[in-house]
Amino acid sequence: MDHARSTISKIFNGEPRSYTRFNLTQNMEGENSQVEMKLSSDMDEEVGGNGVGEDLNHAKEPYVVHKPAGRTPKNVCFMVATVLLIFIISYLIGYLSHRKTELAPPSCSRSTFEESITEDSVKMEADPLMDWKDVKSLLDQKMTASSIESAFSEFASKSHQAGSAGDMALANKVLGRFKEYGMDTWTDGHFVKLVDPPASGSNMVTFKGSDLGELRGYLAYSKTGTAKGAVLHGNYGQMDDLGKLQDKNIALDGRVLLVRSGKISFAEKVANAAKLNASAVLIYPDGDRRLGGSTQLFGHVHLGSGDPYTPGFPSFNHTQFPPVQSSGLPSIQAQTITVNMAATIMKGMEGTSAPTGWVGVGRLGDDKDMVTVEVNNVLSEKFINNVFGVIKGFVDPDRFVVMGAQRDAWGPGFASSTVGTSVLVELARAISDMVKNDGFKPRRSIVFASWSAGEYGSVGATEWLEGYLSSLNMKAFSYINLDGVVSGFPTFKASASPLMYTLIQRTLREVNTLSDFGTLYSAVPGSNWEAAVMEPLRLNDPAYPFITFSGIPSVSFRFTTEGAEYPYLGTLDDTRDKLYGATSNQVAKLAVSAGQFAGKMALRLVHDHLLHLDVEKYIRQIRTHVFAINSKIQKVQSMQPQMLPKSLSVHWLISATGSYSRAASRLSNEIDNSNLEDVAMCRNINDRIMSVERDFLSPYVSPRETPFRHILVGSGSHTLKALSDHLDALQNDQSDADADLFRIEFALATWTIQGCANSLAGEVWSIDNMI
Length: 771
Fold this sequence. Notes:
Domain PA: 249-296
Radius of gyration: 33 Å
Helix content: 25-40%
Subcellular location: Cell membrane; Melanosome
Shape: globular
Structural class: alpha/beta
Protein name: Transferrin receptor protein 1
CATH class of the largest domain: Alpha Beta
Transmembrane segments: 76-96
Mean pLDDT: 86
Oligomer: single chain
Distance between the termini: 50 Å
CATH architecture of the largest domain: 3-Layer(aba) Sandwich
CATH topology of the largest domain: Aminopeptidase
Subunit structure: Homodimer; disulfide-linked.
């Protein structure tokens, strides 16, 4: 405007007029226009003197305006018209400058303005985005069954147990592939405590004095030593199962619990038995005609993840840490046995009949049915290596999605590790090629991770999370797990953070079934896709520590056979032939579909301006817990008034829930009305979205004592589910009920939800704090 006033003054004072040149160009997205204004008021200084030079290096003849001899009516009209034109132009410049806040305000100086829009200053916005349809199409073209088959052959291994030479050889192969694709690579090494079978001799189980035979399978982290007691069948070892035994007035004290695999993890079965004072646990494979009677079973019984001897911190240098251990280590012996061994025991068992619904279980066992369990496993220290490669983003390279797969296995591990590793490497190849050769430029980064010691409870992945916790939960916005993505056909199942449900639904619509006659979404049975596809996130899910320990929204998924889980996981029979037989020879095609599903989720997360994580999805889950807690508090206050005083109100918890709901809705409205070209605004919104999962981690418990701190999907007394269970104990006046402890946990959970709402609201002046 100062320049406009100067120009007007020159006009009325009869001084030479300058010209103004406008060049309307579209920005890099083609959605809006921006004005490039070049003013030449100082042209006379460029050529010298008051006139226009005769030798100008211009492509066109310059304007030459001579000083008027006098103010004729014609000149006056011309000047008035010029003033109006300049006024309109100045108004438009101000309006456009207000709209385009990311550009510096126009300056009268040509050089200053041009410097503000140099290539370097707008590099992030100068590169045109590839259309999402083209991105999907490119991925589909590059993920092929033939390339997956080649990867199967390259990464299959008969022996690659964590910390072994075979595991290290596979790590080097993966690292070599990442380097070949031009990715930035690095490794992450740890000294961890793993468990091997006895170096000499073996573990032993005897029934009524008779040895049941050779035991090659074992359960890592079991308590070593010998336990003896009367055998008692516990079905699947769930607390409901054990509760049915107690309903029959059968005590578990000192008993050796015989349970079958399935339903819950081995670690949970052993922990449940230990709670009721059982002396040991024997686990046998659940009945499946495909599984041989002598098949040995492998697993672990650490009720947690990571190295249990460095709980809550990384095993980078084992000499630096005190001699502590995880509270999730079992206090009793645990051992796997074969189907034939279990059949021998059950044939000789007496006692009462099994509860209704316990299919295949006859008698429960009598006090005379004595079993001895001897565990001689060896705890050893081993070096493991995680391998990484990254495709860096072009706008926010410091924000990234992680895709990972375990590399190790007890034996061949074709379904448990080979397929996932192959899909991981093929996705790295395909997306790298899209960036190098097809012009795809992701906004954010993609990290590819090959983990070791996954069979021992996501040890490699958890150690990495522990090592970099302070930065990961600020920068990693999602984890996509590729372990066990193909174990059957044709059912599709997934478990995930609620933040990812909407993204999962959209991606199901973008991946075709093997017949190509429809999408995975159209193949979902029934009208409720969530009920048909989504499963609860369990402790033994490799994605579990990412959500509950680090606060990173995560997803696991797999193709499976409805009602018939793949029986060979955790056995030495998990081979290529077995998996091909279980999928009608469709493994490669299913792996391609799995790669397309994982790849399209990752690409959507790094392609679009805003993260496709739905913060409103947690509202229903929070309200469900709060409704249950409110109802139970009222019951306790009416039935056990001495436990909880009437002054204890659920109002504040309900208010915190409302604060989160309003903050989530307001953020959704901001997203609907946002200017996607405003880079700073998009980053602010994305950071608020990323804060949700992290802020549901209770800040009031120790990561070492209670690693799974998430109040909604974690485990421990701080969770909303634990609060509900605690109210049941208070209502029934159980010995472990503690009203004071409940009130403390209740208050802390309330403020955790309110704190999450405050963070989601954004700036401190936007907080809706009704408490």
